[in-house]
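Entry:
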Amino acid sequence: MATKIIEEMKYCEKCEIETVHRKNSKQMSWLMHLFLVVITFGIWIIIWILILLWHTINKSVTAIGNRWICSKCGKKTW
């Protein structure tokens, strides 16, 4: 799973202006898994489904602690 940083313009209550907020995000490489399914003649699809289930559960659990962070003052927001 690749970790990517998402950026969005959001209003910061501490700075009282709209600033860039950042958040970490984990994303699955769908193309790589599709390639592995093709070269293993479909056997990899079993592993892919297990990884997909783990990714779905893990993403919802880590989303609780993974909040937006203001790039100017460092305040964490939802």
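The first helix runs from residue 30 to 39.
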